[in-house]
Amino acid sequence: MNITLHILLTGIGATLLMDLWTLLLRRMGIATLNYAMIGRWAGHLFHAQWRHAAIGKAPPIPGELAWGWLLHYATGLLFAALLVGLAGQGWLHAPTLGPALLFGVVTVLVPLCVIQPALGAGYFAARTPRPFMSCLRSLGTHGVFGVGLYLAANLLANL
């Protein structure tokens, strides 16, 4: 299989598993990220506004939900490519759980240290009602993403 296609399918598969996990959390009554807010944040970047006091109070952006989902999957693809860049292309042909899980867990630093502060939630969700629980939920979700990287790569390697 073409390496680019392999990375794309691995990233999509991992992100899809992450989405199924967040759907399960929502069904259990646990709040998760609304990707429209990511789209809103991205839309405001075009107006040179990087950081918000509270993204939910910022003016809506046309198509923000679609932009949010697009950015969510683009990030999953980028993370899959970074994992392969770090672990080597051989990992795609014989994937192991360790590197994928570790990488998935490390990627939680992006939302905790970049996205949440930009959306107004503060570093490590400090401005949310339950920062520790928010961080744990993010860590778990990114762990699921890491498992998804492994499962998707393993499935593709065995086709």
UniProtKB/TrEMBL annotation:
It comes from the Bacteria. Keywords: Membrane, Transmembrane, Transmembrane helix. InterPro entries: DUF2938. The chain crosses the membrane at residues 6-25, 65-88, 100-126, 138-157. Pfam families: DUF2938 (PF11158). This is DUF2938 domain-containing protein. It comes from Pseudomonas fakonensis.
